[in-house]
Amino acid sequence: QERLLESGGGSVQAGGSLSLSCSASEGIYGDYCMGWFRQAAGAEREGVAFIDNLGRKYYADSVKGRFTISQDKATNTLYLHMNNLKPEDTAMYYCAARRPALFTRPLERPLDGREYNDWGQGTQVTVSS
Predict the structure, then answer these.
(1) How far apart are CA 11 and CA 2, in angstroms?
(2) What is the DSSP string of 55-103?
């Protein structure tokens, strides 16, 4: 099973930027899809951004134009660059991996956590007004 480790969280004022990293210890396979999710206190988990093995990306409407997902397969690292942060971005952020071989159907909902089979422990992002 892949192991995912997030880093880069912290506290920032509204309008600021943060970059999150997710290191995959077992390697990001060529056909994997990767995603970033977040969960605020008392709220449900929310899909934030997705990238597939061909580099295609998808974002939640709430972060479009502000967040950028990227990956470096040479270093097995997934990134989430966050600009113009808002207090409502405050949450625990998780990276997730989808290994297609573990699923019986193609990916249909890239921002649905049920589409992913492995998760990191999370990194906290706090945005103050």
Answers:
(1) 28
(2) --EEE-TTTTTTEEEEEETTTTEEEEEE-S--GGG-EEEEEEEE-GGG-
What span, in angstroms and rounded, lies between the C-alpha atoms of 128 and 3?
Answer: 31
pLDDT tens sequence across 62-99 = 999 999 999 988 888 999 999 999 999 999 999 999 98
Q: How far is CA 53 from CA 17, 35, 73, 118, in A?
A: 26, 11, 10, 16
Cα gap 51→34, rounded to integer Å: 5
**pLDDT at residue 113 above 60?**
yes
The pLDDT value recorded for residue 53 is 87
Q: Are 4 and 23 in contact (CB under 8 A)?
A: yes
